Each structure stands twice: as C-alpha cells, then as structure tokens.
Amino acid sequence: MSTIKYRTCSLCEAMCGLAIEVNGKEVLSVKGDESDPFSKGYICPKAVGMKDIYDDPDRLKRPVKKVDGAWVEISWEEAFDEVAEKLLSMQAKYGPQSIGIYSGNPSAHNLGTLLTIPDFIRSLKTKNRFSATSIDQLPHHLAAQYMYGHPFMIPIPDIDRTDFWLIIGGNPLVSNGSLMTAPNCRGKIRDIQERGGQVVVIDPRYTETARKSDQHHFVKPQSDVWLLLAMINYIFKNKKVNLRHLINLVPAEELQALAIAMQPYSIEVAARKTGMTVENITSLFDAFLAADKAVCYGRMGVSVVEFGSLSQWAINLINLLSGNVDRAGGQMFTTPAFEIIQKPSKGKTKFNRWQSRVRKLPEFGGELPCSTIAEEIMTPGEGQIKCMITNAGNPVLSTSNGKQVGTAFEQLEFMVSIDIYINETTQYADIILPPATGLEVPHYDTVFNLFAIRNTAKFSEPVIPKEDGAKYDYEIFQALTKRMIADELPTDEKVKAKILYKLGMKPKDMLAFGLKMGGQITMEDLANHPHGIDLGPMVPNLIDRIMTEDGQVKVMAEIYLKDLERLNKTIDQTTDGLVLIGRRHLRSNNSWMHNSVRLVKGRERCTLLIHPDDANAHNIVEGAEVTVQSKVGQVTLPAEISEEIMAGVVSIPHGWGHKRKGVKMAIAQAHAGVSCNDLTDENLIDQLTGNAAVNGVPVSIANSKTTKTEY
Ligand SMILES: Nc1nc2c(c(=O)[nH]1)N[C@H]1C(S)=C(S)[C@@H](COP(=O)(O)OP(=O)(O)OC[C@H]3O[C@@H](n4cnc5c(=O)[nH]c(N)nc54)[C@H](O)[C@@H]3O)O[C@H]1N2
Ligand SMILES: Nc1nc2c(c(=O)[nH]1)N[C@H]1C(S)=C(S)[C@@H](COP(=O)(O)OP(=O)(O)OC[C@H]3O[C@@H](n4cnc5c(=O)[nH]c(N)nc54)[C@H](O)[C@@H]3O)O[C@H]1N2
Ligand code: SF4
Ligand SMILES: [Mo]
Q1: Distance 696 CA to ligand 4 centre (A)
Q2: How far apart, in whole angstroms, are the C-alpha atoms of residue 50 and residue 40?
Q3: Quick one: which H or E segment has residue 456?
Q4: How far is the CA of 167 from the centre of ligand 3 (A)?
Q5: Residues with CB under 5 A from ligand 4 (ion)
Q6: In what helix (H) or strand (E) does residue 255 lie, and over which residues does it extend?
Q7: What predicted TM-score, i.e. pTM, was given to this entire model?
Q8: From atom 2 of ligand 3, which residue's Cα is the shortest distance away?
Q9: Which candidate, 430, 383, 388, 379, places its Cα nearest to that of 409?
Q10: Cβ distance 440 to 464 under 8 Å?
Q11: Neighbour tally for 708: CB within 10 Å
C-alpha cells in the first residue's frame, strides 16, 4: 500500500516542499506539497531527481578501496580504521598542514554534516581547509562581516513586498534564488508586476529571468562595479540619502567620507565601462530611487568576478543609503528558529588571520580560497598538502583550472572522499566513504532558513529508511573523529565520557537543543506540522541585532578603500577578445545530477553560446565543433549561435565534462559535455577575498569545424 510522505527538497537553496508517494522502499512519485506554507506546491524538474538519485545503480552503498587500480568493497570498520590511521600517520610524519579538506555544496544542505563536521575538521588541526564558498559567495560574507558585524548577517531581498527588484548577475528563474531562498521566483516576479512594481535585470545574457522582467540591460562582464559605485555617487550628489530609522546607526563623518570616496565614479564612466547608455543608467537610478520600496540584488554575475567584494559592498550600500535596509520590501535580516548566528567575541574578525602558504591569499572564516588547492599540493616545502579529504564536493569540475586540481590529486600520498559517486574528483581517492543520501536522510535546513525571504521551519524524517549497514554522513564524521582524537582523550573517566557523549549526539537531538535556545518552536511543534510551520515575514530588527563592535553600521572600511585603488587602475583597461561567462539550467545542479536520464535528456545543453557577429567573425556555423582556448587550457564543444548573448561574450555552463577515465557514472558519461573550469584560471580572483573569478575569463577561438567530432 502506498503512503504520502512530506519532505523539503534538499537539492538547491529554494527549500520546496515535496509530497512523495512511496510503497515500502519504492518511490512512486514526487510532487509539490500544496500545503507547504513556504513553497505552496511549487517544484522544479530537479525534484524528481531525488528519486533518480535514490534508484541510481551507480550510487555507492558501501566503502570502496582502490587496490591495484581496481575498486573493491570493504567493511565500514576497516574503512574507518584505515582512513584514521592514514590521517594520523600523515599528521605525525609531515605535520597537520599536510592534510587538506574540501567541502562541497551538498554539505550546506545536510543537517548531520553541518552539525558534526566541525569536530572532525578540528581533529585534523590543519589550516588547509577549503570549500565551494570561495568559488561562490565570499564577497557576501565579507560585506556582512564589515558592515553588520557577522559573516552570516547577509541581508536578504524581501521580494514578497518590494515594488522594484533590480537583479544584477542573477538568474533566479533558473537557479530559484541564491542567498535568497525563494521558491517560485517566476510567481514572485509576476506578483511584483501585478502590484504595479517593476523588475529590471542587468546581465550579459538575455536570460530566462530577463525575459519575464520589465527591462533588461546588457552589460559587459566584470563592469558592474562601475555602475554600482556610480549609483552610490548619484545618491549622494542628488541628496537622496535617506537612512530612515537607521540614522543613528551610521556615523555622519563616515557617510561624508564615503561620499567623497565615491566622487570619481560618474555615470559617464559607468556607461563607458558597461556599454549601457548614460540615459538608460540615469533613468534606471531615478526609477529605483523613486520607488517606495526597492531592492538591489546581485548574485553569481557580481560575486565570482574580479571585483566581487567591491560589488557586494556597493549593493549593500545602495540599499542602505536609499532607505531600503531593515524595512519591508528592501533588504532585511531573517530570524530563523534555529539561530546559527552567535555574537562574535569582540575584535574577532575572522578574516585574514593567516594566509595561504604559496600565494599568501587570506583566510576567511577558517578557510583558504579553493583557487589555491592545486598549488598547495604541488609546491614542495614545509606545510605542503600531501593528503586530501573531499566531502560532498567535486573540485575537479567545479573549481578554477579544475584539470590542474585533478593533476594535483594524482600526486597525493593519500586521498579519501566522502561521496556517493565515483566521479571526476573521487576517482583519485584511495578510499570512498559513501553516505546514505537524499530521501533516506532526515532533514532540517539550518543554513537556508537563514537566507530565506520568509521565516518558516520544517523537519522531515527520512522518506525511506536507509539500508541496513548504510551510514549517514554524520555517522561517518563521528566515527572518524572518535578515532582521530582517541589518543588525546583525558584520563579522567567522567570528562572522557562527556566528550564522547557529545561526539555521539544525534543531529536530531542537537537540533532540538538549538531550537530550544532559539525559543520560537520545539521539535514537538515540528512533528505536529509535517508540511512546515509559517513563522511570518521578515521583520525590522537591525537596531537590536547589529553585531559590529560599536553597534554601528560600518559604511567605510579601509579594506574596501584600498580595493578601490586596485579598481581605479583598470579604468582605461579594455578587452579586445572574447570573455567567458557561465550559465545554469533548470535541469542541472552544479556537477552531480547528470546521471539521471530525465534530467539530461533532450537537446545538448553544454554548448558554446555565441553572438552571430562573433560567430561570423570566426566562421562558426550553428552546431560546429568549436575549440575555445584560455590561458590555462582548451575545450571543444558545439556552438549555439544566438542574440541572447552579448557580442564579445561567450557562455559555457559549468558542471559538465564527465568523459574522463575512471569516472563510473554511465548516464553522465553518455552526456558528457566539457568542463568550463578547464578554461577558468586559478589566478583570476577577487584579490580582496581570494574568491574565484569564473565569470569574465578572457578566451579565444582556436579552431572551428563544421563536422561533429567525438569528445
Ligand atoms: N565556472 C563555474 N564554476 C562554478 C560555478 C559557476 O557558476 N561557474 N558555481 C560554483 C558554485 S556556486 C558552487 S556551489 C560550486 C559547487 O561545487 P562543488 O560543491 O564542488 O560541486 P557539486 O557539483 O555541488 O558536487 C557535489 C558533490 O557531492 C556529492 N554528493 C551529493 N549528495 C551527497 C551527500 O548526501 N553526501 C555526500 N557526502 N556527498 C554528496 C556529489 O556526488 C558530488 O560529488 O561550483 C562552483 N563552480
Ligand atoms: N537549476 C539550477 N539551480 C541552481 C544551481 C544549478 O546548478 N542549477 N546551482 C545553485 C547554486 S550552488 C547557486 S550558487 C545558485 C546561483 O544562482 P544565480 O547566481 O542566480 O545563478 P547563475 O545562473 O550563475 O546566474 C548568474 C548570472 O550572472 C550573469 N553574469 C555573468 N557574468 C556577469 C557579469 O559580469 N555581470 C552581470 N551583471 N551578470 C553576469 C550570467 O549570465 C547569469 O545569468 O544557483 C543555485 N540553483
Ligand atoms: S527549486 Fe530547488 S528546492 Fe525546489 S524542487 Fe527544484 S531543486 Fe528542489
Ligand atoms: Mo553555489
């Protein structure tokens, strides 16, 4: 007999409610949960991918070890013992820095991982910690840290109540929002328009979101920062600063200094850099400032670029100065039931406390930029990484110059991956520890509720019990941590028992504790509401919550002023050749969901999107196999000629490139595509944070053939 179970989708940030029909261990259907107070029945095509992952014959269920080049199954105990033994011997032989760890995107969607991985990482004692954060959103964390006092105090656009939504370098119709958890962005845009508001998109591509917006402007990649700074200057020049209730939080002398610092950034310069006209820029600024409630939102197109930090700082400032922070319809701060923001101890800015060994890039939140992984493995000397752990990440496809990362992994003495597949990254591991995943895992979003446009809460029990002998991610981390610290435990039996008790706690119990501390809801409330609980819209709270040392919003910081100097040096810089940007597709999720037939079927998606003028200039015809080259590598893929991309810009989606020796994902390999990160350059970064710059990479066309070639 079949039953319906309710669960939050854990694939992207949108937290859609799913209604899943199961019969025992069989998944019959995946639909949207109409009663979910947040997503109200909305889902995207990826949701059904949850079933495909569950059913995937290529998914690993037991630990595997590489023996003479072949994978053999081993027991969990053997795997844990061997991994811990190897890690401890590395620590002893080369010192703790010899271990590197990279955590990928699904970690942020995994309650167990989030609550247990910190202990494991501490047990490694290494500073060589990396994650996908530094090829994604470091600029947002830096701006939150400097302006509001905590890296997670990222202000969220209140698109449910805004009248004017300015979207710069984001494609929420496809991505369903990022650092803005908002299911059904299509519906949200329609709602804004129906209440008389406007949506404006600024993007080098006429995107799916742009098509539904009221206005779209093409903009040259990497140039937005000039537009954003010009807007701040325009606000000052036209005396439009309106801090409303936050007036006492912003020191007047800082505002004055900011106004002076912004003076060089004119609309004329912005027009020259972006390719927009002076008239279009001026009317855009005027329309934004005339709206009662407006919000400027920028995502990957202004985060993973060379001036990502300045851009995200500027976006926060535009919202603040125009009176749109901590107010309905502007940028607001969430109050999740499980609060992960703790007041930082005074003066403890977790930024640049140490630097990477080779390139001296700054640490942020205890992590180093992932653009440094390969060099930290391949450059000999004290502190060289000799052993790597990857967890829920695929850096060979997802980080800059990924091919080089693969080459580096080949040189390691030992590598272990906690992952469900033998893919482009984990193929280099000596041991893979595969957790139960997706529908088999209990779920609560501790991270994405923090970024959600409305406060809600939902706990889901596993839809299907994990198989006998399978382990959750958290069980893997706990088993490894216990082994790592076994010899360091105190002799006092009572203290020892306490430490071990804490290390063995179930995520559900930790969640219960966290909710109790938050004081909004209990586990019992959650159990009584399988569709989720609505906790209402975001509310103004900044005056009470601000976490800077002096309780003031910091609009000026030395680090940004210094970075303006770096920007100013590029004022006369022009690009002659083509520049590469990325794109996402509704049926793709970064690099790891291409092993589902229904998600990869249809027209080839890993194409080189190129403008007709550029295609003509290079004698490229539709479908021709084009070899694109950058400073670090080349790829060959079919051309898709379209005016939806700006002239001078080409686009390749990331997350493809599955045809590599050693990968064991049959469907993905049959729809392989190429990896755009074989073109992105690990030296192209946002210098301030070390965040990768994968949008705006200079490339050239090396070759084009009209006949299709195999790759
Ligand atoms: N050029 C370019 N590069 C980009 C981007 C871009 O826009 N352009 N985007 C960047 C962004 S925003 C991100 S977030 C990163 C993502 O980069 P990564 O996080 O490195 O890559 P993913 O593709 O998310 O890989 C997820 C991995 O987790 C595994 N996995 C899935 N479920 C589970 C689970 O339950 N447990 C465990 N242990 N493993 C699991 C999958 O098999 C896969 O190996 O890519 C970045 N790279
Ligand atoms: N379907 C699907 N959904 C996803 C994901 C996925 O892989 N697939 N990944 C998830 C993850 S991990 C993340 S972080 C989010 C990302 O969410 P988004 O940021 O909304 O997604 P992107 O498609 O990367 O959008 C970036 C946009 O910036 C534009 N762009 C590129 N360079 C520039 C530039 O220099 N200036 C401007 N103004 N625009 C530029 C691109 O054309 C693109 O439209 O999506 C999440 N949701
Ligand atoms: S939008 Fe994201 S959360 Fe919603 S169903 Fe699709 S993948 Fe899942
Ligand atoms: Mo991301």
Answers
A1: 17
A2: 19
A3: strand 454-457
A4: 20
A5: 136
A6: helix 252-262
A7: 0.97
A8: 12
A9: 388
A10: yes
A11: 10
Q: Residue 654 carries which side chain, given as an amino acid letter?
A: H
Assign residue 426 a region: left if phi > 0, alpha if psi is -120 to 50, beta otherwise? Answer: alpha
Alpha carbon separation from 138 to 182, 689, 704 (Å, rounded): 21, 7, 37
Count of CB atoms situated within 10 Å of the CB of 98: 24
CATH class of 3-55: mainly beta
Sorted by sequence, the CB contacts under 8 Å of residue 186 that are 6+ apart come out as: 173, 212
C-alpha distance from residue 105 to each of 31, 136, 323, 398, 590 (Å): 24, 10, 34, 10, 9
Q: Is residue 18 within 8 Å of residue 8, measured between CB atoms? A: yes
d(CA 636, CA 622) in angstroms, rounded, equals 14
What's the confidence (pLDDT) of residue 601? Answer: 95
Provide CATH code, domain 138-336+542-566. Answer: 3.40.228.10
Would the CB of 185 count as within 6 Å of ligand 1?
Answer: no
Crossing angle of helices 111-124 and 507-518, rounded to 10°: 100
Separation CA 578–CA 610 (nearest Å): 10
Task: With beta carbons less than 8 A apart as the criterion, state whether 144 and 150 touch.
Answer: yes
Which CATH code for domain 576-703? 2.40.40.20
Rounded to a whole number of angstroms, the distance between the first and last alpha carbons of the chain is: 47
- Shortest-distance ligand to the CA of residue 225: 2
Which residues does 171 contact at the CB level (< 8 Å), separation at least 6? 203, 207, 208, 209, 299, 583, 584
Residues of the chain with pLDDT under 50: 709-711
The pLDDT score that the predictor gives to residue 349 is 82
**Beta strands of 203-327 (E only): which ranges?**
215-217, 294-298
Place of tokens 């028992």: 497
Residue 272: burial class (beta carbons within 10 Å; 0-12, 13-18, 19+) = middle
d(CA 234, CA 610): 34
Sequence spans of domains, the chain: 3-55, 64-126+386-445+475-517, 138-336+542-566, 576-703
Residue 673 tokens, joined = 């595509």
Q: For 9, left (φ over 0), alpha (ψ -120 to 50), or beta?
A: beta
| Structure confidence at residue 346 (pLDDT) | 55
Asked if residue 205 has its Cβ within 6 Å of ligand 2, the reply is yes
What CATH number has the domain spanning 64-126+386-445+475-517?
3.40.50.740
Inter-helix orientation angle 111-124/473-485, to 10°: 20
Calculate how far, in angstroms, residue 126's C-alpha sits from the geometric centre of ligand 1.
Answer: 22
CA distances from 198 to 157, 276, 656 (A): 14, 19, 35
C-alpha 613 – ligand 1 centre gap (Å): 34
Cα(383) to centroid(ligand 3), Å = 41
In DSSP terms, 418 is beta-bridged to 391, 433
**Burial status of residue 565 (CB atoms within 10 A of its CB: 0-12, 13-18, 19 or more):** exposed
The residues facing 533 across adjacent strands are 457
Nearest-atom number in ligand 3 for the CA of 8 is 3
- State the angle between helix axes of 308-321 and 224-237 in degrees (0 to 180), rounded to the nearest 10: 30
Full DSSP string of 298-320: E-HHHHSSTTHHHHHHHHHHHHH
- CA angle at 95 for the pair 94 and 101, rounded to the nearest 5°: 100
DSSP one-letter string for 687-699: TTTTEE--SSEEE
Phi, psi for residue 574 in degrees, rounded to 5: -130, 155
The tokens for 327 are 């107010």
What pLDDT, on a 0 to 100 scale, did the predictor assign at position 711?
A: 43
Ligand 3 atom closest to residue 44's alpha carbon, by position in its atom list = 6
